[in-house]
Write a structure and sequence with these properties.
PPR_rpt, DNA-binding, Serine Threonine Protein Phosphatase 5, Tetratricopeptide repeat, mainly alpha, Pentatricopeptide repeat protein, 601 residues, TPR-like_helical_dom_sf
Length: 601
DNA sequence: ATAGGGTTAG
């Protein structure tokens, strides 16, 4: 009964956005009652069909033709198999075409048919049709199940209807559809999105889960924990981890790996040790993923010796490093500028019989670009096809960025045109690079119109993308335009971060509007955005420039309180101002406090 | 027929 209520709720939810669909005119075509017709007892023996041979659209088409003419008629189950395998090869439209045909032919479709069809709609980002199909079945008396709702929720996420997804999910909880056997779908990283944008409800959900008697399985917990981790709620995740253990659900290596990754991201290596110990106490062995995460953590800190040691350790434990492990090392060396070492790692993996993949080569490409060895990067870029690898979005973006950083703008732009011609889809990284390049070449008007083009395509841009444009506008003396864009950010679904505020503050200071910059600093704090040492340095210098020492000092004091350091340029301006003045011990002491940690005395 | 973890670019 409750699942009916959730269905009604779900339909209502989508109703408001226009409940139009291509199936509504056929409502009632499904012949009820499903159970009678799909009952196995009434089916004569069926010949076997090997669905695994469906590898491409034509196979599916052929098989569908064959099945339609089969005697006796194939069961729903067989048709469902065909739908499912067609969806697996990503021919969603044809799957839906077959679904239409099945309805027309009077095949006694069931809840599985519905779920597969709904899933196809969702993957085509046609969420309304997904809801329409559910509504259609619902009217005919076929009740959606947890999988149906999970699929719809996933579809809402894919359509960026995060709030609706959250509402539907909460309904499921309230109607207890997911309990007690626990079928939450936190998979696919989709929940990370929900959690990120709904931290408080998510935390509420976690608390509810901790208290409730319901026992999700390890997979459901792991997925949820991973979602929390990806949303920066590592401590909430750890707390839930303890709660699940208390309930008698044993985490496995996947659960731990996800948590270890979260702690590594925060640089909390001491806590990582605790978890690794916990694992060995519970007889959960580390696997290749655990080691790769740890090696990556060392590489990110440029501690290549430690990383190599770990590689040895894992080999001693008979855990075979894989391509990902080696790629981590290759990237580590490239980030450190040691390309020759990186090449050695690549050779060593070939010796081990492992084939380097596109990631391996992209890391190397980035290594050359970062060192400014653009011509070598080009040669490397041209070699991809010889290795049997096609340039992907990352390859192009890296190369374009490399060219731009050498101010070879027209070549970079030409490469982008080539990328488009080769049908390699640009993504948010590519766009940020291009926008940044335009701005750094002084073409801010072009950047703005390009930005609008991208937005018109429905691409979701983030802070980095907008930050590139705002920064470009500020640096090119177009503060007014920058501020306009900055003010519009929330309505475009992006909240400004400290970096962006700092860009505007910097531009205001350059204009001499230090008082206004001061207001913006207050505003950013009231929006829960903490200024960084960069921000405070800018403010300090701005007042020093105006010879207003007394207004600069409070910022130095704040920095001392927060344990932030002053830049060398700030300090030298400060010293300048003090020349000729009476020695102020308090000020001297303050200056010492905000001295950078590695400042030579 | 369904479900979770690790590598690259802005």
């Amino acid at each position: 009964m409750t699942s009916r209520r959730a269905a009604v709720f779900a339909i209502d939810l989508i109703h408001g956005t226009g409940f139009l669909n291509r199936w509504s005119h056929k409502s009632g075509i499904i012949s009820p009652p499903f159970s009678l017709f799909s009952s196995k007892a009434f089916q004569p023996k069926q010949p076997r069909i090997d669905f695994s041979c469906v590898k491409e659209l034509n196979d599916a088409i052929g098989l569908f033709q064959k099945m339609k003419s089969m005697q006796p008629e194939p069961s729903v189950r067989m048709y469902n198999n065909l739908l499912s395998v067609t969806a697996k090869i990503e021919e969603y439209s044809f799957a839906l075409y077959m679904f239409d045909e099945m309805l027309r032919m009077g095949v006694p479709v069931d809840v599985y048919t519905m779920n597969i069809a709904v899933n196809c709609c969702c993957l085509l980002k046609d969420i309304k049709s997904g809801f329409a199909i559910m509504g259609l079945f619902f009217k005919s008396g076929c009740e959606p199940n947890v999988t149906t709702f999970n699929t719809l929720i996933k579809g809402l996420f894919l359509n960026h209807k995060v709030a609706e997804a959250g509402k539907l999910f909460n309904k499921l909880l309230r109607f207890r559809i997911c309990e007690p056997d626990g079928c939450y779908d936190f998979g696919d990283g989709k929940w990370a999105l929900y959690i990120r944008e709904n931290v408080l409800p998510a935390r509420d959900l976690v608390r509810r889960l901790e208290r409730s008697r319901s026992r999700l399985d390890v997979k459901a917990y792991s997925a949820l924990l991973d979602g929390l981790r990806k949303s920066g709620m590592v401590d909430d995740a750890l707390q839930l981890l303890s709660a699940m253990i208390e309930k008698g659900i044993t985490p496995n290596v996947v659960t731990y790996n996800s948590m270890i990754q979260g702690l590594c991201d925060l640089g909390r290596l001491e806590d990582v040790k605790v978890l690794v110990n916990e694992m060995s106490n519970s007889n959960i062995s580390l696997d290749v993923v655990t080691f790769s995460i740890l090696i990556d953590a060392y590489c990110k800190e440029r501690k290549m010796e430690e990383a190599e040691d770990l590689l040895k350790t894992m080999k001693q434990h008979n855990i075979c490093p894989d391509v990902v492990t080696y790629n981590t090392l290759i990237d580590g060396y490239c980030l450190r500028g040691e390309i020759d070492k990186a090449r050695q790692v690549l050779d060593s993996m070939v010796d081990k019989g492992l084939k380097p993949n596109i990631v391996s080569y992209n890391c190397l490409l980035n290594g050359y670009c970062r060192k400014g060895r653009i011509d070598e990067a080009w040669l490397h870029f041209l070699e991809f096809p010889c290795k049997g690898l096609e340039h992907d979005t990352c390859t192009y973006t890296t190369m374009i960025h490399g060219l731009f950083s050498e101010r070879r703008f027209s070549e970079g732009w030409k490469l982008f045109k080539d990328m488009e011609a080769r049908r390699v889809t640009p993504n948010i990284y590519t766009y940020s690079t291009l926008l940044d390049g335009l701005c750094r070449n002084g073409e801010t008007d072009e950047a703005l119109s390009f930005l609008h083009t991208i937005e018109g395509k429905g691409v979701d841009l983030d802070r980095v993308t907008y930050g590139a444009v705002i920064n470009g506008l500020c640096k090119n003396g177009k503060l007014d335009v920058a501020r306009d864009l900055f003010n519009q950010l929330p309505s475009r679904g992006v909240l400004p971060n400290a970096r962006m505020y700092t860009m505007i503050i910097d531009a205001l200071c350059h204009e001499g509007s230090t008082e206004e910059a001061q207001c913006l600093l207050t505003e950013m704090q009231s929006h829960g955005c903490a200024p960084t040492s960069v921000t405070y340095n800018i403010m300090t210098r701005s007042f020093l420039k105006k010879k207003e020492l007394s207004k600069a000092i409070p910022y130095l004091e704040v920095m001392r309180e927060k344990g932030l350091s002053a830049d060398v340029s700030t300090l030298s301006m400060l010293i300048d101002q003090m020349q000729g003045k009476t020695k102020d011990d308090v000020l001297l002491k303050l200056m010492k406090d905000v001295l950078p940690k590695d400042f030579p005395s």
